[in-house]
Write a structure and sequence with these properties.
This protein is elongated. 31% of the residues are buried. Helix content is 0%, strand content 60%. It is mainly beta.
Length: 119
């Protein structure tokens, strides 16, 4: 059983910063890619950022230069540093990880954390 537990969401003013954390726990052999998604009201869920096992990163165009994804493999944790937040960043942010256990490799999702940016 693998779980992803998120924290760090909240309410901030435009221009502020937040750091989201997502820690994976359970019977984990290793974690391949880890990423952050978000879903705003009335919109489809979109990929915000992903970090691969080798450290390569990719970002949505809307967050490039403002958000930074990182990971701590020893802690099975992925972070999303969000700077210069804008109202359009308001969404539920969910982390995702491809987790390898002894028996299989599967995708897991966190429960989501609300980020609200006021104007």
């Amino acid at each position: 059983q693998v779980q992803l537990l998120e924290s760090g969401g909240g309410l901030v003013q435009a221009g502020g910063s937040l750091r989201l954390s997502c820690a994976a726990s359970g019977s984990i052999a290793s974690i391949n890619n880890m990423g952050w998604y978000r879903q705003a009201p009335g919109k489809q869920r979109e990929l915000v950022a992903v970090i691969l096992s080798g450290g390569s990163t990719n970002y949505a165009d809307s967050v490039k230069g403002r958000f930074t994804i990182s990971r701590d493999n020893a802690k099975n944790t992925v972070y999303l540093q969000m700077n210069n937040l804008k109202p359009e960043d308001t969404a539920v942010y969910s982390c995702q990880a491809t987790v390898r256990t002894y028996y299989s490799t599967l995708n897991y999702w966190g429960q989501g954390t609300q980020v609200t940016v006021s104007a």
